[in-house]
Design brief:
Its cofactor is FAD. The chain has about 500 residues and is an alpha/beta fold. It contains 16 helices and 22 strands. Helices cover about 35% and strands about 25% of the residues.
């Protein structure tokens, strides 16, 4: 506060000398001075906590650390907080998924509800502008939270020079040293590259380029049938692209429950998405106007050619730990670059911690957030905990697919005697009323105790419906516990209740 007051007084005096000192001018000028003073930490100031990376894990850890009374600095190279998730990942992709779904509904479903208009067209620049607005608003919102919680925000690329010092190269090439008693690496992950394929973000794109295409490609080939590939394929497929997904494995989304996965693939195929499974890309030709991919069976065999206007490389992500100086201070990593930490998120070097995508566990933004909170709670002398077996996952297509806990295949592999309860949304009143009834709820529970082991939902808004199951699994609830909870009628969540009834006894409405 003292620094801010000094900045305002200085601003007012400077503007007074120019003869233009209005209170708003003084505030604007002092605001910039105050921001600058917050933006670059002095090397002589030691922090309790320094976080390298301002993504979901890093910024949440910074805010929580400050709330716990720890002097905190967060270093972010991007120049905008929120990391990949907010800037070029979760948030912009969900914005485009929603916008493209609205267009698809207007073309294919509105007339069934008595809503008709002579024509519908895509205004791609407007769609992109809406996405960008959402991103910028949220980024500024995090900066506001930093100010509110007195987190120092340093823009620049940080790397270790000792276990308690980080050298930061700023946007203009300036250098400063940030000191901390505890330093958390939260640098997230980057796109995994494929041999022989160069991403130019024009014709061969990563998820970043796929979020910013200037026109709708006639033919889009997606390499990789994971969450990101299917979501981005859905966006452009709804807007008119012919989408073909090439996947090396025998199944899409291999971590998904097998029964749900099969239904999910059929749903996407009904939306005209094509799949080439057990297939690998062995060559890329960009000499013409488009892209020619040479493909062959994963096990080897006859080669064929696949043409596209745009190719999306979506073969997974890799931890971003290179160039951080980890080797200089002796931090141990595994063969893919992940930092090895203990249950308190501490690396083999005392005082150096890691969270999120740079450590083992699911590469999900919400997992990184939980890591961040737990890590700083440990630093503050409290207890933190994250159970990676109880982290939900969501594919934001339509219908969405959400899950928590174990798949039926995993339970079977563990040798646990189990029961399965299922309920289709075709028998759910709300789903039928809104004419959006494709999907199913599947519950896997221990046969002897009825404890819920896993829940898998394919449905509109499955990503919202799953959290009742997440809470139940976290508290070791039984399927009967869910079944005996009164659910409002008519709601989509009644399908979860009915699936629970089917697990321990019998459902009512089927």
């Amino acid at each position: 506060m003292a620094m801010a007051s000094f900045a305002r007084r200085k601003a007012y005096l400077l503007l007074s000398r120019k003869g233009s000192a209005s209170s708003s001018d003084a505030f604007k000028y002092s605001y910039s001075l105050t921001n600058f003073s917050r933006g670059f930490a002095s090397g002589s100031d030691e922090n309790d906590v320094v976080i390298i990376g301002g993504g979901p894990g890093g910024y949440v850890a910074a805010i929580k650390a400050a709330q716990l009374g720890l002097k905190t600095t967060c270093i972010e190279k991007r120049g905008a907080l929120g990391g990949t998730c907010l800037n070029v990942g979760c948030i912009p992709s969900k914005a485009l998924l929603h916008s493209s779904h609205m267009y698809h509904e207007a073309i294919h479903s509105f007339a069934n509800h008595g809503v008709k208009f002579p024509s519908v067209e895509v205004d791609l620049p407007a769609m992109m502008a809406q996405k960008d607005k959402a991103v910028s608003n949220l980024t500024r919102g995090i900066e506001g939270l930093f100010k509110k919680n007195k987190v120092t925000y340093v823009k620049g690329y940080g790397k270790f020079i000792s276990p308690s010092e980080v050298s930061v190269e700023g946007p203009e090439g300036e250098n400063t040293v940030v000191k901390g008693k505890h330093i958390i690496v939260a640098t997230g992950s980057d796109v995994k590259s494929l041999p022989g394929i160069t991403i130019d973000e024009k014709r061969i794109v990563s998820s970043t380029g796929a979020l910013a295409l200037s026109e709708i490609p006639k033919k889009l080939v997606v390499i990789g049938a994971g969450y990101i590939g299917l979501e981005m394929g859905s966006v452009w497929g709804r807007l008119g692209s012919e989408v073909t997904v090439v996947e090396f494995a025998s199944d899409i989304v291999p971590t998904m429950d097998g029964e749900i996965r099969k239904q999910f693939q059929r749903s996407l195929e009904k939306q005209k998405m094509k799949f080439m499974l057990k297939t690998k890309v062995v060559g890329v030709d960009t000499s013409g106007d488009g892209v020619k991919l040479t493909i062959e069976p994963a096990a080897g065999g006859e080669q064929t050619t696949l043409e596209a206007d745009v190719v999306l490389v979506s073969a997974g992500r890799t931890p971003f730990t290179a160039g951080l100086g980890l080797d200089k201070i002796g931090v141990e990593t595994d063969k893919v670059g992940r930092i090895l930490v203990n249950e308190r998120f501490v690396s083999n070097v005392p005082g150096v911690y890691a969270i999120g995508d740079v450590i083992p566990g699911p590469m999900l933004a919400h997992k990184a957030e939980e890591d961040g909170v737990a890590c700083v709670e440990f630093i503050a002398g409290k207890h933190g905990h994250v159970d990676y077996d109880k982290v939900p996952g969501v594919v934001y297509t339509h219908p969405e697919v959400a899950s928590v806990g174990k798949t039926e295949e995993q339970v079977k592999e563990l040798g646990i005697a189990y029961r399965v309860g299922k309920f289709p949304f075709l028998a759910n009143s709300r789903a039928k009323a809104i004419d959006d009834a494709e999907g199913i709820v599947k519950i896997v529970a221990d046969k002897e105790t009825d404890k819920i082991l896993g829940v898998h939902i394919m449905a509109p808004n499955a990503g919202e419906l799953i959290h009742e199951a997440v809470l139940a699994i976290n508290y070791d609830a039984s399927s009967e516990d869910i079944a005996r909870v009164c659910h409002a009628h008519p709601t989509m969540s009644e399908a979860l209740k009915e699936a629970a009834m089917a697990t321990y006894d019998k459902p009512i409405h089927i």
